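Researcher: I need the complex structure. Ligand is iron/sulfur cluster. Inputs:
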Amino acid sequence: MNPSSFSPRPTERLRDDLLVWYKEVSRSLPWRINRTPYRVWVSEIMLQQTTVRAVLGYFERFLERFPDVDSLAEAPVEDVLKLWEGLGYYQRARNLHKAARIIASGGFPETVEGWMNLPGVGRSTAGAVCSIALGQETPILDANVRRVLGRLRGISPGDAVRESPDLWELSKAFVTEASDPGEVNQALMEIGAVVCLTRKPLCTVCPWSLDCASCGAPEEILNPPRKKKEKQIRIRTALIPSDESGYFLVQGRDRLLEGLWDVFSVSGPPGEGQMPFGKVLHEYSHFREEVFLVREERSLLEAALGETSSLWLAKGEESPVALTGVARKILRFRDSQKKRKKP
Ligand code: SF4
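Model: Output:
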């Protein structure tokens, strides 16, 4: 990438081309219809760290159950977590619920700063809500938009693009004096999601191919190899009643799993004499978990649980509470085993 050899057209021209392209190819997404602050905010939180494809079904179910901020604020957080089950990064759901309670009593913020005062809302999310729902000229810079604009200007990936203040300026230039700043921001998100892909960007169909400092750049320049950090491995042993009648569920103990329910387990590998019948692996952003599955007498498990608050989930019963990813994997593992056993 050689930014000095490029003299791209003014940002307004790039914006015009972007909007023409967006009008032709934009996907019809439920949160693009009826752009209220509530709908846009919920969709933006759901889309953090997640793809549009993953969010689609969740958004509609969520809006059906919580059609407005009051219904969300009045619901117990457990109901919110249950609807969020499987979408991951549960802190987003807890923050959404906390923020809904603040909004229900004080009203929706009307500025980027006001939105940023709410739990779980950063500058880019605030910019997206203010532009899309309120028509304000507020810039965004989520990971996709940062990548696209960084490539457009030939800023090296990695720390340089993450820390470049110029990209906020550039994003701001795109929405300044735009007739619909929200649409410009959605177009920026869209080009990052469907054309300027992290790997193998589709430069030949990009509306900016003649202006972009990175057009056609080789993979090793766009995505220089990074040293992978070794993840810490945590090991525990899930205890399953040997009569196969169901599971004891307990609430997650650390902040990551707060409000979610997990299959009763103890930390560390199986003890002496405990023969695991399976193992479940689960990746978190900072560590990997290995969970051995062992059978144990139900009466012994009841004794081990003692005063610990627990729930009994009978075999075949739909869980009424939100389960951790590991718990869902354990239930699926058991189901697949039972199917395999059938003649
Ligand atoms: S030309 Fe290629 S690298 Fe540049 S913005 Fe378009 S897709 Fe991305």
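Model: Summary of the prediction. The CA atoms of residues 90 and 131 lie 26 Å apart.
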